[in-house]
Design goal:
Elements (H helix, E strand, L loop, with lengths): L1 H32 L12 E5 L14 H6 L4 E4 L10 E5 L19 E5 L19 E4 L6 E2 L3 E5 L12 E6 L8 H9 L5 E4 L12 H5 L2 E7 L10 H9 L3 E5 L3 H4 L9 E2 L6 H9 L3 H6 L7 E5 L3 H11 L12 H5 L2
Parallel strand pairs: 1-2, 1-3, 3-4, 4-5, 5-6, 8-9, 8-10, 10-11, 11-12
Antiparallel strand pairs: 7-13
């Protein structure tokens, strides 16, 4: 009897939540469709509460930061937890959810949508099993996320010209967290048998200051854009900033080539898996002539690199996506989804 009563209450809460969400969506779309003519009431702003800020450094946030910085109207961003009861969306970065549920609000309001946020790969994401039936939306680097937040992208730029920085060495790599068990450590060790790699970063006791990274890396013809783990769509700043923005050719280790080609042109990078052996890859890099090398920069004639580094921009993107998101949906098994 006790279980059936509990189940009945749960069903009632679900029905109430869906009902309230439906009313909110209807109101949202009606207000969105209203013109700004005389007599029309301005639609209520969407309130997004960031429960914990994703990064250690919390930037200045005004209520209208989305409009002020990114021209996204009708949206208010806040980190004030006392506004929980006004929030339409609550954002929870996974890194701040540890060690468990005690950091979550005690209750979830009907019609309120919770967002799980992570830029880490599944290999570096712990304790997902306890978050079943908790979050409505996911916000990750995965293209199939409800809110897709890549590390970077290429944006059209027809007036762009090819700019290849002067080169003084062949290959470089910046690495801070070196673990011998990682695939990238194995590949580097074997590749370095056939060519010299200029290694920088904490792992090699050659840390680079923030302003020094790009000028240093740009002097290399090639950059080892090796991801710390291999997962679908997990293509990080190692490609976008350290390689393409720096003006060097990325040698990538990550998901398959076809996955990279969903983000960047096929002739803009070299994939480790393009070769039968690392010796063959090393020979390809060492013997490349100037004409062939310049072809890797053809993308610069059509595109420029946009980096996503500001969490305010990422979170404000929820506002633009909100009308099209699946309201009332819950992820029954977050771990299974993220590891798929």
């Amino acid at each position: 009897m006790g279980n059936s009563v509990g189940t009945g209450k749960q069903r009632a809460l679900v029905i109430a939540s869906v009902f309230v969400t439906t009313l909110w969506n209807l109101r949202f779309f009606l207000n969105l469709s209203k013109g700004s003519g005389e007599g029309s009431k301005p639609r209520e702003p969407l309130v997004i509460l960031v429960w914990e800020w994703p990064s250690k450094q919390v930037p200045s946030i005004s209520r209208d930061v989305c409009q002020e910085l990114y021209s996204i109207t009708g949206c208010q961003l806040t980190t004030e937890k006392q506004l929980l009861h006004q929030a339409n969306v609550v954002v929870f970065p996974h890194s701040r959810l540890q060690p468990g549920r005690d950091k979550l609000p005690k209750e979830k309001l009907p019609g309120q949508n919770w967002v799980w946020v992570s830029l880490e790969s599944p290999s570096n994401t712990r304790a997902l099993a306890e978050w079943n039936q908790t979050f409505n939306w996911v916000m990750t680097y995965r293209q199939d996320s409800d809110i897709f937040i890549p590390y970077g992208k290429l944006v059209p730029n027809r007036s762009a010209t090819v700019n290849i920085p002067a080169k003084t060495n062949l290959v470089s790599w910046v690495i801070s967290n070196y673990h011998r068990t990682q695939k990238r450590a194995e590949v580097y060790k074997n590749l370095s048998r056939y060519l010299h790699v200029n290694v920088y970063g904490k792992a090699n006791n050659k840390p680079l200051c923030k302003e020094c990274l790009l000028p240093t890396v740009s002097k290399s013809k090639f950059y080892l854009a090796f991801e710390n783990s291999i997962h679908r769509d997990y293509i990080t700043e190692k490609l976008w900033r350290n390689s393409l923005l720096a003006g060097t050719v990325p040698v990538v280790l990550g998901p398959p080539r076809a996955n990279y080609e969903q983000f960047v042109p096929a002739d803009s990078f070299i994939h480790v898996n393009d070769f039968d052996s690392l010796e063959e890859l090393a020979t390809f890099l060492k013997t490349m002539n100037s004409s062939r090398y310049q072809q890797f920069f053809a993308w610069q004639k059509r595109f420029s690199v946009k980096l996503y580094t500001d969490w305010r921009e990422r979170i404000c993107s929820i506002c633009a996506a909100y009308p099209l998101l699946p309201h009332g949906h819950l992820y029954p098994d977050l771990q299974s989804w993220f590891n798929s």
